[in-house]
Amino acid sequence: MFTLLVEMKKLVENIQSYFEKQTFGVCSWWGSKLGINSGSIRIYFIYLSFLTFGSPVIVYLIMAFILQVRNRFRFRKPSIWEF
Predict the structure, then answer these.
(1) Sequence-separated (6 or more) residues with CB below 8 Å from residue 29
(2) Which of 9, 14, 63, 70 is 20 to 30 Å apart from 76, CA to CA?
(3) Do 27 and 37 form a contact (C-beta atoms < 8 A)?
(4) What is the C-alpha to C-alpha distance for residues 82 and 70, in angstroms, rounded to an integer?
């Protein structure tokens, strides 16, 4: 019984760390652009999600998708030394 609880706790911690690393890039990006703490932006997303029945979650996922695509396809100018 105790080992099951330990395994469940590990699973929850792994899921939480994954989401903290992967999905909170939008809030930190907005925080750096606006000069606001990213934690307060996360709180506003949570409050708005409760008030508007989850529609900010859809906006959040769209912004996360755009940021991921933008970061993957960002082209840099080749230097004069590259052919």
Answers:
(1) 67
(2) 63
(3) no
(4) 24
